[in-house]
């Protein structure tokens, strides 16, 4: 009876590449049925949410790791918090979040920013990155779940910071392109599969501390529009975001290491300060990895047998 059933069915049928290679067809089909059930159940419970293509890429990641029951609870919570802006009736808030990408790049590398502006490439190349948490564009499941660990522990805008560090990392490739929309868009829409993920995660954390969303809002859009996003209107989520450990630790380390008159200067140009910030991120990375392992181990006690193949 769901108005989204046909679209969900089509998207799930096209999601074969998201399942482990070599999985028996019968087992995969069973998981696809569970995937459809999870999505439709969450939408039925939350009529204010609107399905978008790419949502199934996020749900299937949780399904493969923790099974149907726990995935339903986790994704439902995410859908009313981290993913809320993607599930509006229109894409206005999604476009607004994408608008943070270029200001971040401009703060770090104005030459690259100006080149991309001249090419008129826009930000649409990063749309699938953002709304699927990179699940749709990365082929290695290990990299996908590592990023999910990071995004779960951070502010809901962290995926756009990670998108920015990917573009910054590929600076020379971009500048070597012809300065036109087609060439630059084609290059950026193809993510290399051998990226140094831990280095990029660390740098995304650095950039979030140095250029928090509140400082970029004016450049991303008018403040009135910024206030309409779920990240700034959910009061309980604002409190949770302010107190979440990765953001809090990074901010405290950053503020504690600099004298007051130095706090507005570029942390990325100060090797000593940057080392401490990166050590904080590395420490958090280890903690997140341990927590993820604990979740997986507990999930395996009741999860379907196929999970034993994913986590031997």
UniProtKB/TrEMBL annotation:
Cellular component GO terms held in the UniProt record: endoplasmic reticulum membrane
A Pfam family it matches: RabGAP-TBC
Transmembrane segments: 121-138, 150-169, 279-300
Domain Rab-GAP TBC: 1-155
GO MF terms held by the record: GTPase activator activity
Cited PROSITE patterns: TBC_RABGAP
Sorted UniProt keywords: GTPase activation, Membrane, Transmembrane, Transmembrane helix
Name of this chain's protein: Rab-GAP TBC domain-containing protein
């Amino acid at each position: 009876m769901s108005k989204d059933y046909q679209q969900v069915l089509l998207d799930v049928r096209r999601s074969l590449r998201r399942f482990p290679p070599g999985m028996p067809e019968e087992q995969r089909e069973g998981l696809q049925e569970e995937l459809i059930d999870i999505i439709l159940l969450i939408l039925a419970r939350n009529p204010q949410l609107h399905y978008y293509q790419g949502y199934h890429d996020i749900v299937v990641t949780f399904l493969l790791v923790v099974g149907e029951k726990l995935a339903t609870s986790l994704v439902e919570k995410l859908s009313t918090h981290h993913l809320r802006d993607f599930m509006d009736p229109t894409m206005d808030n999604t476009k607004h979040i994408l608008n943070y990408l270029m200001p971040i790049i401009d703060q770090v590398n104005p030459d690259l920013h100006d080149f991309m502006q001249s090419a008129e490439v826009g930000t649409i190349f990063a749309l699938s990155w953002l709304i699927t948490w990179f699940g749709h564009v990365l082929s290695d499941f290990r990299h996908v779940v590592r990023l999910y660990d990071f995004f779960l522990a951070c502010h809901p805008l962290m995926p756009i910071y990670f998108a920015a560090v990917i573009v910054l990392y590929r600076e020379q490739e971009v500048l070597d392109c012809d300065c036109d929309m087609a060439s630059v868009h084609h290059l950026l829409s193809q993510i290399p599969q051998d990226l140094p993920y831990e280095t990029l995660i660390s740098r995304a954390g650095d950039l979030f501390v140095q250029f928090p969303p509140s400082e970029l809002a004016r450049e991303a859009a008018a403040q009135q529009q910024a206030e309409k996003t779920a990240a700034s209107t959910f009061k309980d989520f604002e409190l949770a975001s302010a107190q979440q450990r990765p953001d809090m630790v990074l901010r405290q380390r950053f503020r504690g290491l600099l004298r007051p008159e130095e706090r507005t200067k570029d942390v990325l140009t100060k090797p000593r300060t940057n080392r401490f910030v990166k050590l904080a991120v590395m420490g958090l990375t280890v903690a997140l990895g341990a927590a993820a392992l604990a979740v997986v181990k507990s999930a395996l006690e009741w999860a379907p047998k196929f999970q034993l193949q994913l986590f031997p």
